[in-house]
Design a protein that fits this description.
- Helices cover 38% and strands 22% of the residues.
- Helix 6 links the parallel strand 4 and strand 5.
- Strands 6-5-4-7-8-13-10 form a seven-stranded mixed beta sheet, sandwiched between helices. A four-stranded antiparallel beta sheet has the order 1-2-3-9, with no helix packed on it.
- The longest helix has 24 residues, at 319-342.
- The chain is built from twelve helices and 13 strands.
- The chain has one domain (19-354): 3-Layer(aba) Sandwich (Rossmann fold).
- It is of the alpha/beta class and 362 residues long.
- The structure holds zinc ion.
- Zinc ion binds next to loops.
- The site of zinc ion (ZN) has 8 residues, from loops.
Length: 362
Amino acid sequence: METRNERDGSLGQESTKTLFQEIHRLCHVEGLYPLGWIERTECPCCGASRFQEAFKKLGIRHSRCAECDYVCVDPYPPPQVMEVLYSGDYYTRMREFYELPRLRDQGIGSAYSAPVELLDALIAKGTGGRESGAWLDVGGGLGAFASLVSRRAPGWNVSLNEMNVKSIEIARDLLKLDVLPEDSAVLRAEGREFDVVSSIAVLEHVVDPVAFVSDYAALLKPGGLLITVVPHFTRLNVHVSKASNSNVVPPFHLSLFGADNLERLLRRTELFSGFETMQGGGASFTLIDHAEHWMYWDSLLPDADHAEIRTVRTEEYPLPLNIVLNALSLAVPVTSEYFAATDGMAHLAICATRKNVTPFGK
Ligand SMILES: [Zn+2]
């Protein structure tokens, strides 16, 4: 593993210039897809084992649960591939050249992975007007969201739960955040408890979302709130837009959730007594994605001169596709509000209240 990382370090800047090249190299060339990748046997949301092939993107297969419409990368990467994915060029460059400049200067663009209006509504819901409390943000990277919580709720004790060494360093130095680098089992063994545990754009990345939710819910005080934000993969995404939706980024996004199946997943743990769903952003579905066009585009990774992800055309559209896309794009501005209202918005949040402890210590 060390040899591979060293090799990536020296070749990385030269060899990987785009997101799709990075995914191809880490999954197909070095990750040996699908050799050693793990088949999903049970739906984490409803427990059924009725998976059907949904679509492929970048040669990576996605399955759909016929029972609840949960969509996932199937087979999913083994641990050694996961490790390389999250230490590769994409994450390293995103942290250094995209997130960090935004944290230093909000004028460049939003440092948050969901609209700030939605995050503010979630912070208000989480604090519930209380002056003080303990808040843990899980997998929060450099700490943009944890830092927002600290500013909005100054009396609260906010901690960032993050394991990436470089991210921890930045969160501590730049944002002066309290960072807990231990995993949930260690935090629980230490007897730590929180009023709110949040994860913003994390659940879609984890291999076992049920275990993730259960482990972190165990850190909540009775009646505490688990706040989960994910990209929203709506009914029209599942059945119409499929691979063209920009949230389909295998294998970084392993799970694609809708509002119903995300709530089912949380219900299955039997740890919660109530749920509230919120949404934010523009429409998740766009008419352009009715046509399959993703293979004509790629994304340049940010670098020292570009603190943004630049989408680039890699190939001209064939004429018939070009005509259809031009026609659909005319309809996008006048239909997006309609799709946001009827099908759903781009960001999905769910607040789940931890059950009160049962009497007699059960
Ligand atoms: Zn299911």
